[in-house]
């Protein structure tokens, strides 16, 4: 029984890392704006909060849908995770660089929302599979917050070298989990 919980925790942490890679890669570019450490701390906390809020809403909706569609929930959850991962991989190859909003005020909220939208969809699929909500949300929020901080600080020095590769890695992990749910 303990091995099962350890495996579930490892899976959740890998999924949290995959979701946080999006925030990490965007934070690398944002970190080139020479932000103060106070601003970096606030950005990480806000993004962490949104990575808790968005999957929580998704999990609630997923659980409501799960009771409605019964046996198809596993199929829907696996397909959704695979689709999100594929979208992350394909968007990494889109070479148009979007104009980043300034990380203050409403711009910070839009920035946090934009990097946490994929966690809403993942939360929706996890809600379909009856995952442990509190552990999942804490893992997602903490991991994305720390990865955002790392990305912002490294962005001052790295200048975007890892951005595309981290999105590809994150998308590949989500695709793998989707396939595992479908066929495992």
TrEMBL record:
Coiled coil: none annotated. It comes from the Bacteria. It is found in: Cell membrane. It holds the Pfam family Mntp. It is a multi-pass membrane protein. The keyword Manganese applies. The chain crosses the membrane at residues 12-30, 42-66, 72-93, 105-128, 134-155, 162-183. InterPro entries: Mntp/YtaF, Put_MntP. Keywords: Cell membrane, Ion transport, Manganese, Membrane, Transmembrane, Transmembrane helix, Transport. Probably functions as a manganese efflux pump. Belongs to the MntP (TC 9.B.29) family. This is Putative manganese efflux pump MntP.
């Amino acid at each position: 029984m303990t091995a099962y919980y350890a495996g579930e925790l490892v899976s959740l942490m890998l999924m949290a890392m995959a979701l946080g890679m999006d925030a990490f890669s965007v934070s690398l570019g944002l970190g080139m704006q020479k932000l103060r450490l106070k601003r970096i701390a606030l950005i990480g906390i806000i993004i962490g909060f949104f990575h808790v809020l968005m999957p929580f809403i998704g999990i609630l909706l997923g659980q409501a849908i799960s009771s409605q569609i019964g046996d198809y929930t596993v199929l829907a959850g696996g397909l959704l995770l695979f689709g999100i991962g594929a979208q992350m991989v394909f968007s990494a190859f889109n070479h148009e660089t979007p104009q980043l909003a300034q990380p203050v005020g409403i711009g910070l909220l839009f920035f946090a929302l934009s990097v946490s939208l994929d966690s809403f969809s993942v939360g929706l699929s996890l809600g379909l599979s009856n995952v442990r909500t509190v552990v999942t949300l804490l893992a997602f929020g903490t991991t994305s917050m720390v990865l955002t901080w790392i990305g912002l600080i490294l962005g001052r020095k790295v200048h975007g070298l890892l951005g595309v590769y981290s999105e590809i890695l994150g998308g590949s992990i989500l695709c793998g989990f989707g396939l595992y749910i479908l066929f495992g």
